[in-house]
Amino acid sequence: MKPREIAYKILQEVLSKEAYANITFNKYLKGQELKEIDRGFTKELVFGVIERKYTLDFILSFFVKKAPDLKTMIFLEMGLYQLLYMDKVPSYAAINETVNIAKKVLGTKRANFINAVLRNYEREKERVIFPDKERDLKQYLKVTYSYPEWIVERLLNNYDEEKAEELLKSLNERPEICYRVNTLKIDIEDFKRLLDSYGIAYKKGYYLEEALYIDIKNPESHQLYKEGLIYIQDEASMLVSKTLNPKEGDTVIDVCAAPGGKTTHIAQLMKNSGEVIAFDLHPHRLELIKENCKRLGITNVKTEVFDSTFVNEKYLEKADKVLADVPCTGIGIIRKKPDIKLKNYTRKEISELIETQYKILDSSSKYVKKGGFLVYSTCTIGKEENQNIIMKFLKEHPNFKLVDIKVEMPSGLSIETDSRYVQTTPLEHEIDGFFISKLRRIK
Ligand SMILES: C[S@@+](CC[C@H](N)C(=O)[O-])C[C@H]1O[C@@H](n2cnc3c(N)ncnc32)[C@H](O)[C@@H]1O
């Protein structure tokens, strides 16, 4: 299959079945003997269309009277994306190649329609009237940076207009891929020497010594990955386990653990001693933790299928440290998972999610020993899923108090506003947008 046809198939699955873009991309690319350049092109087209969908659809609305069927729409979006954002693809190739694949997949009639719309756009771009920032800020932000309304509203609810806009912009940037060095298998300096000997370029982490930005393509098929020397993980996510600060011999419970990024980091920080108990609601996701532990040589993790909105009576007051890295809207990781933009949460769904987050935190607190610690984290931005949950928790649990997070953070990480929490963002910290807070059980 040609790259544009593969891209179409992936997009069709993601947009019609709400499949995860990363997983679907890997699934379709697995059997294909694509050259590196074609793989890169396919990736750019798939993730680019997802990332810019709201902008693309807005522009297309000036050239199609009635929204066409999903399959036709995907070809229009792919064609327009190439015209607007892929400088290296000449316009004639963007249109002709896309139309040729459309003819093969959808037949001549729909291909002719796609051809006409894309050519009309090329001829009459000035027909598009973009929203005016002064007159309709929300629509302007939505169309300019390509976001659904709920994300625009969330950021405007939490930041002033200028910062909200900067954040939306920064979440569209393509991040470098960060890796955690598995110090259970190799010393960090030895690992750097190994990279040098392979001639692989890397850059130090911004905040953490175990974080490295390594220049490798298709990491999961790389020898370094297969041997368990690295784990793909953003520095913001690593900061969570660092904040928990587990010690050798501790008992730690990670209540929403899959696929195990933080669980395996915790195990690593504990030098594979003590015990890490990892819960998750989904059995198939717990399998991912087991696979990761095997690859990384970790033996102190025990997994258990459990719904963490409930209390697991076996573990009452048993843990030195508990991590509640709860399910969330994921705004902070849009750079890596642009398909988060495709979710159209209703207010009711967000309220239900917030309720779940609170229940998980509440239940998790029951596992903490007196004097022990509880870390609450999300990979999203906004007080609704973060500060508000903690404030409510503190009101209802006088036996817990907040730990000053500034003391817990690496010195280079600036915390501007409130030292009780940390909210990282790609805009301010160059890493994903995570919220972290730490509580101590005082009685
Ligand atoms: C943010 S992810 C966790 C990421 C993980 N901590 C890591 O670092 O790799 C949230 C996880 O919570 C799980 N989950 C959702 N609802 C849950 C519940 N009620 N009880 C337990 N796990 C739940 C999801 O399956 C998902 O794996």
UniProtKB/TrEMBL annotation:
Q: Where are the transmembrane segments?
A: none
Q: Name one GO cellular component term.
A: cytoplasm
Name any one GO molecular function.
RNA binding
Ligand binding (S-adenosyl-L-methionine): 256-262, 280, 307, 325
Enzyme Commission code: 2.1.1.176
Q: What role is this protein assigned?
A: Specifically methylates the cytosine at position 967 (m5C967) of 16S rRNA.
Q: What is this protein called?
A: 16S rRNA (cytosine(967)-C(5))-methyltransferase
The organism of origin for this protein: Thermoanaerobacter uzonensis DSM 18761
Q: What is the lineage of its organism?
A: Bacteria, Bacillati, Bacillota, Clostridia, Thermoanaerobacterales
